[in-house]
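Protein modeling request. Please complete all fields; requests missing the sequence field cannot be processed.
Requester role: graduate student
Desired output: 3D structure, token encoding
Chains: 1
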Amino acid sequence: MLSRRSLLGLSGSLMAGAMLRPLLAATPSPKAPAFSLFTKHLVGLPFDQLAETVAELGFKGVEAPVRKGGHVQPARVEEDLPKLVEAFKKCGVSITLMTTDINTVNADDRTEKVLRTGAALGIPSYGTAALFMKSSDGYAHGLNERVPVDAIPGALQQWYEVITTLAK
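Delivered output (168 residues):
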């Protein structure tokens, strides 16, 4: 059996809760985090089908490969990247990051065109190829991804070139 004091305390708590309920219901809930999907495994799908699939999975953003073998080839970046962005936009999805093969600024890889086209379309960031490796090693992904200390000065020089060339 409840004491009179406990009964009054419980009643007061219930009344306060009932009075606060409309106020709490009107308060927006915290925004759920948005997750992006790396879409490398979906390369080859038509852009509209790709965007619809990503949206159906519940993702609001993608990390899209814009490189050789990706959704958009560097040779066609001005033509195809706007189409990819538009397909995602129609489905409420944005490209949060472009995955690229960029590790130097050069005309053959169309570095400047790829980055400037992505920036003009509102893509906020891009990933680069592995900078901290010897060119004879291939990609740094694999069993041993450690950075050799003697590779850092060359990588810093590459970043300097990328930044000073594209920051104009």
